[in-house]
Amino acid sequence: MKVIEIAFSTYPVLDMARARAFYEGVLGLKATMDHDMGESGHWVEYDIGPGTLGLGRYDGWKPTSDGCTVGLEVEDFEAAIAKLQAANVPFKMGPFETPVCRMVIVLDPDGNSLCIHKRKPGHH
Questions:
Q1: What is the pLDDT along the chain (124 residues), one digit of tens a residue?
Q2: Which class would CATH give 9-119?
Q3: By the 8 A CB rule, do 56 and 10 touch?
Q4: N or C, which end of the chain is more exposed by having fewer CB within 10 Å?
């Protein structure tokens, strides 16, 4: 077996409307797929560049801040920080700087960790 790319990253959510308000309202993502199965579950996808971020609500699949973390690259790090602060989004770590980037780890409404990231010039 040869893995050739990340197909998608996903987070479990408890309340899809609340999650969508955060991912679409605060982060500005646009849903590219919405599959509501009623009581049995709900799946929403956001295509971001060549990757996909999925949100799912299913019995037995619970959010945790220790699970998968998606790093979302932003155009303007300072503007992103200001928007997150204005929306009272909880900061788990940072903001902080590394040799190649600036980043902050925030929590979505279900407590999932999410990295907001900006590469420094010359780094890809």
A1: 676 667 789 999 999 999 999 999 999 999 999 999 898 899 999 999 888 999 999 888 888 877 788 889 999 999 999 999 999 999 998 898 888 889 899 999 999 988 899 988 887 6
A2: alpha beta
A3: yes
A4: N
Global pTM reads 0.77
User: How far apart are the C-alpha atoms of 57 and 95, rounded to whole Å?
Assistant: 29
Instruction: Characterize 98-107 residue by residue with b for buried, 16 or more Cβ atoms within 10 angstroms of its Cβ, and e for exposed.
Output: eeebbbbbbb
- What are the structure tokens assigned to 109, written together? 């409404």
Half-sphere exposure of 61 (CA within 13 A, CB side): 13
State how far the Cα of 60 lies from the Cα of 34, in Å rounded to an integer: 20
